[in-house]
Amino acid sequence: xxxxxxxxxxxxxxxxxxxxxxxxxxxxxxxxxxxxxxxxxxxxxxxxxxxxxxxxxxxxxxxxxxxxxxxxxxxxxxxxxxxxxxxxxxxxxxxxxxxxxxxxxxxxxxxxxxxxxxxxxxxxxxxxxxxxxxxxxxxxxxxxxxxxxxxxxxxxxxxxxxxxxxxxxxxxxxxxxxxxxxxxxxxxxxxxxxxxxxxxxxxxxxxxxxxxxxxxxxxxxxxxxxxxxxxxxxxxxxxxxxxxxxxxxxxxxxxxxxxxxxxxxxxxxxxxxxxxxxxxxxxxxxxxxxxxxxxxxxxxxxxxxxxxxxxxxxxxxxxxxxxxxxxxxxxxxxxxxxxxxxxxxxxxxxxxxxxxxxxxxxxxxxxxxx
Length: 370
Known about the structure:
Elements: E1 5-6, H1 10-15, E2 19-23, E3 26-31, H2 35-44, E4 47-50, E5 55-60, H3 63-73, E6 85-92, E7 98-108, E8 111-116, H4 121-130, E9 136-139, E10 145-150, H5 154-162, E11 174-179, E12 182-187, E13 196-201, H6 203-217, E14 223-225, H7 227-236, H8 271-280, E15 284-291, E16 302-304, E17 310-320, E18 325-333, E19 342-347, E20 350-357
Parallel strand pairs: 1-3, 4-14
Antiparallel strand pairs: 2-3, 4-10, 5-8, 5-9, 6-7, 7-8, 10-13, 11-12, 12-13, 15-18, 15-20, 16-17, 16-19, 17-18, 19-20
Helix pairs in contact: 2-7, 5-6
């Protein structure tokens, strides 16, 4: 039997009567109250997330050695990043598949940090080591605590907690702040479509910070949020999740994140095929799907064209608390789509009408850069 890892807040979650669940080798809170309540609190007020299961890997060396290394292993352009910028990117394997989707932090031209998914940060670290040209690679995941606060009131609440304004931090940027002999990394990032922040700290400070944010935020409507609402929030934005939309066997274009695929002088793994697919299309594509009638979409539900041909499957599905409809993300055969947006989804042996949709299901409310 697998021994689950625990974040420093594990006991706190249990004291708060959270329902716990295994996730990526970790024991994590699924929900504290109800998934819908937690979801709507994040959309209308604020939500607080324990994401300390995520991994942090630091990469340091001279620009001449470091930049070519990062460009070779990722598909987005690292060389255009500025100090204090965060970038959504992906580490690709030798076949062009996705080792993990990551956020990349640039401190300066000689220091970067990768934030990687809980189940993958060791795979990312080992992959970096495999192709290491002699840079310094440090897996600091055990040393960092990570909280996320998301929602319309996130800036107001966190500014009061810290005692200084966060309004000058632009979207997908970060600052380092010294507080109580600690150096915090505070980034304006998240995976909900709401404005918000992620705070990297020591484990001890992170536990204190969780309690302080709840103390300030609960009277304003903030709620602690479990994995259940974290999933429904990201599906409403049509954000991909590793193991569902993203995997070792599909490249970024096939996985629906072609916008991070860039043409670069230093070619990454699978470069020629990936660039060709971005320009000319590929056999499969990720797209949103909305159920017309009652019901909930779930992973692996088969999708059919209106003529009855099976053309794909649901990779992630849920009930949208905002739209009050079944929504999901679907992997479909591109040539089978034609001009029709209407498809059928098989739910417990019955085919039900659904509509394919591009873009997010609800509007994003992130604070765009000036």
